[in-house]
Write a structure and sequence with these properties.
With about 50 residues, the protein is an all-alpha fold. About 20% of the residues lie in helices and about 0% in strands. It is elongated and about 45 Å long.
């Protein structure tokens, strides 16, 4: 896991979408501003026998 340092003046409220904290994370990891910060997961897990 990687640590991302964010200046105190860029920290937004917890749970607020689109706050500067998320923008800072996107900048750190090179994600486009419109990309959600979630992993791609299949809607249904593969069936195992």
């Amino acid at each position: 896991m990687q640590t991302v340092e964010v200046p105190a003046d860029e920290v937004g409220e917890v749970g607020e979408v689109g706050t500067p904290i998320f923008e800072a994370i996107r900048r750190e990891f090179g994600l486009p501003a419109n990309e959600p910060l979630t992993e791609d997961t299949p809607e249904e897990p593969p069936a195992g026998d």
